[in-house]
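Write out this protein's structure.
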Amino acid sequence: MRYLKILVVGLLLTVPVLATAEVEDLPGSAVWYFHIDLEQMRKDGPGQSVYAWLQDEAFSDIEEDVGVDLDKELDSMTAFSLEGSGPVILFEGNFSQETRDKIMAFVAADGDLTPIKASGKTYYHFSGTDDHESLNLSDGDIEIDIESLEDEAWVSLALKNKILITGAEEQMQGLLANNGKIAGRKSHDGALLVLSAEKTLLQAGMNSAAMSDGGDSDWDSNILRNTKQVAFMMAAAADKLALEARLVTTEPEMAESLASVVRGLVSLMSFSDDVDEETVAVLQGTKVEASGNNLSISLAIAPDLVVRTLSE
């Protein structure tokens, strides 16, 4: 949950320089993706508690800093990155003219207001900066370093109810030609895993091999060295939040070994005096399954427990 907190807040706090595309249309060469469905979270159900946490931790700060009310304007956000091509990010929602004007002000500050056209649609060149920001979360014990776009980006407001930003001009041209859609991942061998459910709230995944630099980085753990892909999903299920993580390992033996480790840790935590009864019940209901190269971990958790964990 600590890493989920960093991922969600870190991405949402970078709104001025990000954009997205639908998860179902990920290209086969994507190395990571992230999708959050805020419209689904707003509906009656367990997602509302997480949405309220996002409002307190991120949305209110964004509105105070740049005057954009994400609660009213943003419905979903998806981001992915292609190896060597930088990020592609698409915001979808009912954006006000004031918000669109502010985005154009960002472009004017570090870009070129000369319109460029592709497939009859306009986009703009944003030069970017080399500046780095350090954002500190509310509890003061986690610091997230967020880099601005170091080289350049392309920005378009031409698609209805969409704001599109890409790290490469060819990406922008291709997306505009297809109204924000791209070739789906299902047509590509080795494409990223995408977990989904009827009421999916959040999805994320990565090609762990592509994310590792082969050195002593945080990604270069023993687990990720033996993992090809990782995927995560949070969905609404009755009055609970369903969480699922899936790893595709390099060898079936590694999936079995990891499953044994996870089951052992769950068992140990269940008997710890430091774990409350509610958490013990969640741990005891955790399903850990290994099949071939796949390891799946799933659990159902009360939304208030998720929010408490995110807030710690």
